[in-house]
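User: Here's a structure from my thesis project, written as structure tokens. My advisor, Dr. K., wants to see whether a designed sequence matches the one we expressed. Can you design one independently, without my sequence as a hint?
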């Protein structure tokens, strides 16, 4: 009976030490880093529809994607159908990125015109997204 009691005490102590060790040394938390994704929209403001408009995106690996957009102007003047089409494509891209876990971090916009008398120019808007990504352990 004394042997059985001693064996039970030793087993209980071993289990107790194992539990204490397990909870006192938790597994290290996975490391995370911020990754970035940029979308640049260049919309041409050139009369007659001869300008070029694009949406260019670059992911965290440097992969580029270019999407053709419509020009703001046609031969008849500003084309609101083209503006709506561009807005829809930009919104689709933002929705796609949001669904992939990207968060909109910053939006910067600007206008370029050759000079104050020029009818030519561009609108440029940059959308910067980020998300946290787990770093693979080495």
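Assistant: Designed independently from the structure alone:
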């Amino acid at each position: 009976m004394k042997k059985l009691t001693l064996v039970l005490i030793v087993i209980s102590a071993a289990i107790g030490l194992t539990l204490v060790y397990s909870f006192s040394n938790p597994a290290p938390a996975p490391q995370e880093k911020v990754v970035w994704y940029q979308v640049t929209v260049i919309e041409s403001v050139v009369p007659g529809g001869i300008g070029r408009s694009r949406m260019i995106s670059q992911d965290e690996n440097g992969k580029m994607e270019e999407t053709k957009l419509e020009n703001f102007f046609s031969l008849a003047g500003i084309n609101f159908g083209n503006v709506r089409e561009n807005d829809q494509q930009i919104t689709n891209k933002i929705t796609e990125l949001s669904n992939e876990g990207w968060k909109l971090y910053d939006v910067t916009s600007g206008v370029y015109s050759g000079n104050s008398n020029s009818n030519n120019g561009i609108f440029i808007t940059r959308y910067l997204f980020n998300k946290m990504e787990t770093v693979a352990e080495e």
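When you compare it with your expressed construct, this may help: The helical segments are 2-24, 80-99.
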